[in-house]
């Protein structure tokens, strides 16, 4: 094992306010879609926050279930002070660890119970917004690298205003990059599978529209439109990877960060277009829109029904376990935006040739089980390991091999930290999404901050710094610090570099990826210990 040179990193990337012109950037920025005035949160005095920027027209009325419509050019003055609502989402009453015990990953509920068994009252159909976080002193001449984040949530929950996902602490620390976070339509609103529609994967088209807005408008905020990294966690990562396959010749982004989610995710095998219409029509019939031979009339009828009512029916029906089984509304293979076989698509050239950073945590599935009866003991670890291997280890390994076949530069990391400030029960370990607060910096601003250790701080800062190196130069930046892409024979592992963060008191170390991937490819016993 080789330890990475941490001392060489910080001077290269961190730019203090003393090193930049001592002028305050204006809080008002003119874009193609309006003149936005942001704010400065006193907790993060060196970050300009533009909390709600509309990137597409409200998908309401006749625009419901249609591709996002770009916001027309405007010189309207808009005060971007409050976070927008998250897209309409059903909150299950089933007590899963992630939603019941890790509430800093949930959208604000303003007094609604955590597990209500109904649509979140703080969510809305009018949700196609993004939030932007830029250094205070950045100007239109700064040309800073940009990262656009798509939150996860199984394509059913999540959004911008999630406590652990606020990037202000990271931007406050670095002062050398811009972070954008975007909403996209979820569940039946984003992936309806309606026979009367030409496009089913509206949530993915939302993501693309957000990326296009960032490309067209990031320069006045201080960003470089040629250095946009597309970052998605979990379902957000699946979506980002799908876009890289759907737009191979025009990805817009110059790099991808696929965090615990890629297009290879095992559970996303939903069949082909033959399934279109089945679940949507079932919901429609039960809400009074019974048009078995007229999908256009069915669609028009459903556009008259409040989205909350539609999602409440679908969510409550699923939770009651009623027959026939009603599946979740996920991306649907259509041969254009979503494919059945991603390895084959890559071999055929349907993959953007941009570098990718693929990551996972060592104990992914621990937070996605039902709440265990004994909170001190936790769930059965053997079961957790099996699910982690099936859904994340194999996914990361398969994505890596796909990129290797396509000749795409691919870096790998595994987060293995177990820190009390973000992990309230030791058995959770490095659970799904636990690396998000480390990168965003919210590990020391939210939750039990008194539990933050110096070692945790060093691990988090290392993760932030390496990601910033990747954003600046995704092809070669990490090589200069001893982290080689998979397949590069110059590495100490013979081309199988995987950087592990936070394990056994070591900030960052290069290990052989086979020590992880072997649980999938060679049937080895998987080790999830920190």
Helix-strand layout with pairing:
Layout: E1 2-3, H1 10-13, E2 28-31, E3 34-37, E4 47-54, E5 77-79, E6 90-91, H2 97-100, E7 118-119, E8 129-135, E9 144-150, H3 168-174, E10 178-182, H4 187-190, H5 202-217, E11 223-233, H6 235-246, E12 255-259, H7 278-286, H8 295-302, H9 307-319, H10 342-347, E13 356-361, H11 381-406, E14 410-415, H12 436-440, H13 454-472, E15 497-503, E16 506-512, H14 514-521
Helix pairs in contact: 5-6, 11-14
Q: What is the overall silhouette? A: globular
* Beta-strand content bin: 15-25%
Estimated structural class:
alpha/beta
Give the overall average pLDDT. 91
Tell me the radius of gyration: 22 Å
**Spatial ordering of strands, largest sheet:** 1-16-15-14-13-12-11-9-10-8-4
Please count the beta strands (DSSP E, at least 2 residues each).
16
- Residues in helix, %: 25-40%
Poorly predicted spans: 5-25, 267-274
Instruction: Tell me the distance between the termini.
Output: 16 Å
Q: What is the overall number of helices?
A: 14
Record keyword descriptors for this entry.
globular; single chain; 530 residues; alpha/beta
Task: Give an overview in words.
There is one protein chain. The chain is of the alpha/beta class and 530 residues long. It has 14 helices and 16 strands. The strands form three sheets. An eleven-stranded mixed sheet has the order 1-16-15-14-13-12-11-9-10-8-4, with helices on both faces. Helix 5 packs across helix 6 (235-246) and helix 11 packs across helix 14. The model is unreliable at 5-25 and 267-274 (pLDDT under 50).
């Amino acid at each position: 094992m080789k330890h990475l040179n941490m001392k060489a990193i910080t001077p290269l990337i961190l730019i203090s306010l003393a090193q930049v012109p001592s002028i305050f950037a204006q809080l008002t920025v003119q874009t193609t879609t309006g003149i936005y005035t942001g704010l400065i949160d006193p907790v993060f005095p060196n970050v300009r926050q533009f909390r709600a920027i509309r990137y597409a027209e409200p998908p309401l009325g006749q625009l419901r279930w249609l591709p996002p419509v770009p916001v027309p050019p405007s010189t309207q003055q808009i005060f971007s002070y409050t976070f927008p609502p998250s897209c309409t989402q059903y909150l299950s009453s089933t007590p899963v660890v992630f939603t019941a015990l890790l509430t800093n990953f949930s959208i604000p509920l303003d007094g609604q119970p955590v597990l209500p068994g109904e649509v979140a009252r703080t969510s809305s159909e009018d949700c196609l917004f993004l939030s932007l976080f830029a250094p205070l002193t950045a100007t239109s001449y700064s040309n800073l690298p940009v990262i656009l984040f798509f939150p996860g949530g199984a394509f059913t929950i999540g959004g911008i205003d999630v406590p652990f996902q606020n990037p202000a602490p990271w931007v406050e620390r670095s002062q050398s990059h811009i972070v954008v976070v975007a909403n996209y339509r979820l569940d039946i609103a984003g992936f309806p599978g309606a026979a009367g529609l030409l496009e089913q994967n509206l949530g993915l088209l939302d993501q693309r529209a957000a990326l296009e807005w960032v490309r067209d408008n990031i320069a006045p905020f201080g960003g470089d439109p040629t250095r946009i990294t597309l970052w998605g966690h979990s379902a957000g990562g699946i979506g980002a990877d799908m876009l890289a396959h759907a737009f191979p010749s025009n990805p817009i982004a110059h790099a991808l960060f696929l965090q615990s989610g890629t297009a290879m995710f095992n559970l996303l095998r939903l069949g082909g277009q033959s399934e279109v219409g089945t679940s949507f029509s079932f919901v429609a019939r039960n809400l009074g829109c019974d048009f078995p031979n007229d999908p256009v009339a069915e669609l028009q009828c459903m556009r008259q029904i409040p989205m909350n009512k539609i999602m409440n029916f679908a969510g409550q029906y699923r939770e009651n376990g009623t027959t026939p089984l009603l599946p979740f509304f996920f991306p649907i293979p259509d041969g254009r935006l979503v494919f059945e076989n991603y390895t084959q698509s890559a071999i055929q050239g349907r993959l953007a040739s941009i570098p990718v950073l693929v990551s996972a945590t060592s104990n992914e599935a621990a937070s996605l089980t039902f709440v265990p009866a004994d909170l001190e003991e936790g769930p059965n670890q053997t079961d957790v390991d099996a699910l982690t291997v099936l859904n994340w280890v194999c996914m990361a390994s398969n994505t890596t091999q796909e990129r290797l076949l396509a000749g795409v530069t691919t870096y790998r990391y595994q987060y293995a930290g177990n820190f009390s400030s973000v992990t309230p029960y030791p058995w959770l370990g490095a659970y799904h999404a636990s690396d998000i607060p480390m990168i965003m910096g919210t590990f020391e601003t939210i939750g039990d901050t008194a539990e933050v250790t110096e070692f945790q701080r060093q691990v988090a800062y290392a993760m932030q710094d390496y990601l910033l190196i990747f954003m600046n130069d995704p092809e070669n930046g990490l090589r200069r610090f001893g982290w080689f892409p998979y397949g590069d024979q110059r590495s100490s592992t013979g081309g199988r570099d995987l950087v592990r963060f936070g394990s056994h008191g070591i900030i960052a170390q290069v290990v052989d990826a086979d020590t992880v991937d072997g649980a999938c490819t060679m049937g080895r016993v998987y080790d999830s210990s920190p």
